[in-house]
Amino acid sequence: MTGIIRALSVMALMLALAGCGGSGVEWHAKNIRGLMPDLEFTLTAPDGEPFTAEDRAGQVRLLFFGFTNCPDICPATMARLQNAVKQMPQDMRDEVTLLFVSVDPERDTPERVGEYVDFFGDNIVGLTSDEETLRTLAKRYRTTFGYGKPDENGDYDVSHSNAVYVFDGQGRARLLIRSDQSISQISEDLETLVRQGRD
């Protein structure tokens, strides 16, 4: 009898853990499912038109805050993410979109942001807005940004997080890509999310 009770207890624990962990996938990135709000925003696209999360609904979307004058973190992150997408099976690549949100609206016009993201490849949307809207969006995902003191030429630095948030096709927050993840690990995670969306 004791053995049966023990077996039932183990089964109940396994079911509880399965319910908490979702699909049971061992992600390389940090699993943030249920910890962050769904993808929701209204920003400005390179053509000057409003762009919302619904415009790429059904796709896996990666959200990254940066600015076009960024000397290191932004270009390195953009290249890394694009290389990860390129490692995915060809029929999956069009199901992933990178959303690059500039938090430097003073210098980064929608057109300039568009030219910047075009340099890195396809399936990247450059977005921006006024500072208040950007701060609201950053706060929604528990991050922030700030501006340094302008130099004699009026140039200034922008501090921002290097976090990359990953949302599934339904706009649910799923993963937080870590800075120490390899390109292959990022690619594997994205491929898994795309496959889940097809099921």
Automatic annotation (TrEMBL):
Residues 32-195 form the Thioredoxin domain. It comes from the Bacteria. Disulfide bonds join 70-74. GO terms for molecular function: metal ion binding. Keywords: Copper, Disulfide bond, Metal-binding. Gene3D superfamilies: Glutaredoxin. InterPro entries: SCO1/SenC, Thioredoxin-like_sf, Thioredoxin_domain. Cu cation binds at residues 70, 74, 160. Signal peptide: none annotated. Belongs to the SCO1/2 family. This is SCO family protein.
